[in-house]
Write a structure and sequence with these properties.
It is a single chain. By secondary structure, the chain is mainly alpha-helical. It folds into two domains: 75 residues, Zinc/RING finger domain, C3HC4 (zinc finger) (Herpes Virus-1), CATH 3.30.40.10; 80 residues, no CATH class. Strands 1-2 form a two-stranded antiparallel sheet. The relative contact order is 0.06. Its main location: mitochondrion.
């Protein structure tokens, strides 16, 4: 009898090592050019094995471990709802880092403005507080309050402070 005929009678999955007798209803496939015992594999086992190799990256190339033939993976067409959800997911993945950075920078800026406003209000008299806050342009006032906070917080820094030393070294290099 020919070699392929002997193994076609008794198939063995190279992933789970099950045979025809172990699971009569399993779907069998020949995904590559392998011969002999590595020729057959369960459809489910192959899909699971490919998923493990791709590690969540559906565009990653996967090849047979024995003959090194690259598998051609075809995905079924998705419906319009899934397509829209995938597009929204890609857009969210692009926007979220910028949004998170903006929230952090905005929070730091607003904290600095608040600290500057509290400092000005504590140092000024009551009637000066009202006239200063009503006379100044809002954008100018917010930027000045933020700069006041930076000036007050860097005023007490010592030159031996390691963070300031690193910052000064970077400034001198540029």
């Amino acid at each position: 009898l020919p070699y392929d005929f002997l193994f076609a009678i008794r198939r063995s999955c190279w992933v789970c090592f099950a045979t025809d007798e172990d699971d009569m209803e399993a779907g069998w496939v020949q995904p590559c050019m392998c011969k002999g015992t590595t020729k057959w594999v369960h459809q489910y086992c192959l899909q699971r094995w490919i998923d493990e190799k791709q590690k969540g990256n559906s565009t990653a190339k996967v090849a047979c471990p024995q003959c090194n033939m690259e598998y051609i993976i075809l995905f079924p067409k998705v419906g319009p709802v899934v397509y829209i959800l995938e597009k929204c997911d890609k857009i969210a993945n692009m926007i979220c880092p910028f949004l998170a950075g903006s929230v952090i920078v905005g929070s730091l800026w607003w904290t600095a403005v608040t600290y500057g406003a509290i400092t000005v209000m504590q140092k000024a008299r009551h009637r000066d507080k009202v006239s200063v806050s009503s006379d100044l342009d809002l954008i100018f006032m917010l930027s000045c309050l933020c700069k006041l906070t930076m000036a007050l917080s860097t005023q007490d820094m010592k030159s031996e402070d390691p963070g300031l030393r690193i910052w000064l070294n970077c400034q001198l290099k540029t």
